[in-house]
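dumping this here so i dont lose it
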């Protein structure tokens, strides 16, 4: 019985050795087929070399069992990886988009999965809109679409053609700041400034939509915009300053 198992293991090793020879032949020819060199086989090759050096029967038996398991892998690790990747990552689909941002028309091609935030920052280089959490929790990415505030990290770029998008870059009138931008400066409505574009876009919407009746109402409306520097008092004062 023992001899039978050993003989079996020997035959596995022989098969592997013949496949290794094939791989080496491919490498020697340096043609395309060499790219199909199975990483599993290369690993086996290294193990066999090591096994030969170890010169131990126990090690030989253990190792040849592992090699037998490797030999049962039906395809290369690379092909397997490709299949897993294709399963989880759908093929890229690119769509032509014509969008109006800050009253300027842009005709671009974008992946259908692109968010409005990434379109603004990565494709159009309008980096005034900030990426904080990228999950709809901090408000740093707030912009206006048709005058209403939206979180651009949760809005697909494919949803905005035919609508007017306004970002922080589109608020000022040339060199003249928007009254809300001016108020933020005068009331110390920011410290590091990272959340500020989103705060200002929300603050403008707060005034436009008439939610400035009280400090509590302003705070409620602005509650989706977080400020790690804690500039909340200055932000509320800025909004009160601009409110009618
Ligand atoms: S980046 Fe969009 S909500 Fe935080
Ligand atoms: S000013 Fe720094 S996070 Fe708001």
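and the seq i came up w/
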């Amino acid at each position: 019985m023992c001899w039978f198992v050993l003989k079996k293991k020997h035959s596995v090793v022989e098969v592997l050795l013949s496949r290794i020879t094939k791989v080496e032949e491919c490498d020697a020819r340096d043609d395309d087929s060499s790219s199909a060199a199975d990483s599993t086989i290369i690993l086996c090759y290294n193990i066999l070399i090591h096994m030969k050096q170890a010169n131990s029967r126990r090690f030989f038996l253990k190792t040849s069992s592992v090699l037998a398991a490797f030999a049962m892998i039906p395809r290369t690790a690379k092909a397997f990886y490709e299949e897993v990747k294709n399963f989880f990552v759908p093929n890229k689909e690119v769509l032509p988009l014509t969008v109006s941002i800050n009253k300027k028309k842009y005709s671009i091609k974008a992946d259908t999965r692109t968010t409005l935030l990434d379109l603004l920052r990565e494709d159009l280089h309008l980096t005034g809109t900030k990426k904080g959490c990228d999950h709809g929790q901090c408000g740093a990415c707030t912009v206006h679409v048709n005058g209403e505030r939206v979180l651009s990290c949760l809005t697909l770029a494919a949803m905005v053609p035919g609508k007017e998008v306004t970002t922080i870059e589109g608020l000022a009138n040339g060199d003249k700041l928007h009254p809300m931008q001016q108020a933020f400066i005068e009331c110390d409505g920011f410290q590091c400034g990272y959340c500020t574009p989103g705060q200002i876009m929300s603050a403008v919407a707060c005034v436009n939509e008439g939610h400035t009746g009280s400090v509590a109402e302003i705070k409620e409306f602005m509650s989706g915009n977080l400020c790690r520097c804690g500039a909340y008092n200055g932000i509320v004062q800025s909004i009160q300053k601009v409110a009618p």
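The longest strand covers residues 94-101.
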